[in-house]
Amino acid sequence: MRIVIAPDSFKGSIGAAAAARALAAGWHAARPGDEVIQVPLADGGEGTLDVLAAAVAGARWQQARVTGPAGEPVDCSWLELPGGVAVLELARASGLPLMTTLDPLGAHTTGLGEVIGRALDGGAREIILTLGGSASTDGGTGALAALGARFLDGAGRTLPRGGGALRDLAAADLARLRPPPAGGVTALADVTAPLLGPRGAAAVFGPQKGADTSQVAQLDQGLARLAAVLGGDPGAPGAGAAGGTGYGFAAVWDAQIRPGAPELCRIAGLDRALHGAELVITGEGRYDATSTGGKVAGAVFAAGAAAGVPAALVAGQVAGHPSAAAAAISLSELAGSPAAALAAPARWLRLAGQRLAGEMDPAHRPGDRAGPHGTADR
Hints:
Elements: E1 2-5, H1 16-30, E2 35-38, H2 48-55, E3 60-67, E4 73-81, E5 85-89, H3 90-94, H4 110-121, E6 126-131, H5 141-146, E7 150-152, E8 171-173, E9 185-189, H6 201-205, H7 213-230, H8 241-253, E10 256-259, H9 260-268, H10 270-274, E11 279-287, H11 296-307, E12 311-318, E13 327-330, H12 331-335, H13 338-343, H14 345-359, E14 369-370, E15 376-377
Parallel strand pairs: 1-2, 1-11, 5-6, 6-9, 9-10, 11-12, 12-13
Antiparallel strand pairs: 3-4, 4-5, 7-8, 14-15
């Protein structure tokens, strides 16, 4: 049998490549003669650069010290790909894990703009921004300001950094904004959220960054002011990615917002790996209703369906059985608790791979669907 293992990272516990290795080791423990191909993936959030570095021949790491989301210096790495393509991961410059104390109103994306500037100085002819894991809800204004834009209040004064100040925005001075590279800008989004409203950047993701109800309202008002000033399409899918950074770069730099997971599947060669495969296994930290809206699991399910290859899911937690999966295993149930699964993710991933190999019907007959522990539900 030819098996493809294509997980995302299990956020907070294990990276995509290590997760793939653990699942592969478990499968081989039960079926040592099978061909197992590992294709670690990402969705445009954390871990995207690691996936690209492994998938693209000639990728080179670069590094710079930039301003972090709370104003402190941070070391930020990015990738140079052949052909003058610079790939920049927002989370490495302006990500939530870089915050020691949450600051939903004051956190900003200045560092992202600084690292973009370094890439342009180095001769980048095309830029790919991977949006996900941001600490702020500033609509990308911090990054754009670092590239020369000015965001002004009614008295013509430059606004303070952070999304909290945007409701006082009256005008944007773009005269000194650096132009985008000739090859254009692509923003890979890990969500399909619009900029504004109950499904927007502030309402959905603001609480994760520490915003209470009144602060969510303030941030949404600020993003609405930004949209009124910059124009563009605040309702576009992915405009709300990374606290509205997707919107900001689309409006000002004409960035093309694309779903991150399918693009990473393409770059990593998932379609080629699926040719002739009997099964594809994907995974992530938590599978729920949002997992098919721009996340890796949904993209793998779609790729598997297009190739006629059944899919299985392994996740830290599984909220409801995914209808697109022939099998689903919850590591939390396998380990006995979420804490136990988080304490030793490689161990439980290996066991999950072994369970899938040992208990799934090799012929994958319709109707033989594995339950949370890998046993068939008939």
